[in-house]
Amino acid sequence: MTSVVTRPSSSYERLPADVRSVLSDRLQGATSVTDKDNAIPAPPRASTKPNPQRRSQPSKPKTTAPRQTPHRHVVVALQNVSKSYPKGNRALIDVNLQMHKGDFLFITGASGAGKSTLLKLLYGQEHPTSGDVMIEGTPIGQLRGNQLAKVRRRIGIVFQDYKLIPRRTVAENVAFVLWAQGYSRKEIHRRLWPTLKMVGLQDKSESFPNELSGGEQQRVSIARAVVGTPPLLLADEPTGNLDPENALQVIKILKKLNSIGITVVVTTHNEQLVRVSNHPVVQLKEGHLRQLRQ
Length: 294
What we know:
33% of the residues lie in helices and 21% in strands. It has helices at residues 17-38, 115-122, 145-152, 170-180, 185-198, 214-226, 244-259, 271-275, and strands spanning 74-84, 90-100, 104-108, 130-135, 138-139, 155-158, 232-236, 263-268, 281-285, 288-293.
């Protein structure tokens, strides 16, 4: 069995006390140096100075998707349309035209240039000799009967000579279109009075056509054309029989209708009226259609 004993001290203990004190101080100094050498170094503090090798990259500008132009609904499209009559007269030659919802277009030209013919093609009274006439995507060149009538319900027509029913009042002339299309009495009443007010004839509702001026009769014709809220309005020389003041009033009404989204086509030979109106203009000359003002 091994006993634990204290070994005798070395000659160090026999040294004088003052010498041992000096040696002891030196030994402690050496030990502290050794401990420092053997100590695990502390992790370096993160430097707050910017690293010259890690320069901040300039932020890339945010890219936004290009804003897409909303699709505009095509209301009228004529593609290579020609119209010839039996005697060989060519009214229209390779006419191309496209109109979108809310457009307003003047068609000018001398008498006999083909303006009325072009409108008749648009509402199906006449058919093209060649080419395609499209109304809201429907080719109407070969439509007949009920199919054509269905398309015409979406087209308002204003004639130069008004075409009012002589023995019917203003209200009855306007309401006749709705009655013919099968609207109820309640719906006819709901549509009739705002339309008469829009053209300024609410006080003439019980008057007959022969009691009205030419300008008033034309306004009845406009009211009748739009009371069914068609997306397309065709006006064939609507100011041809009117004095300048009434002509300007009619154009103002057509502009008001256009402002609510109705696509408007106006044929006219009144150059003064076209000049004061800031709308696109095309001209028919010798059967060809060309752009005058966009």
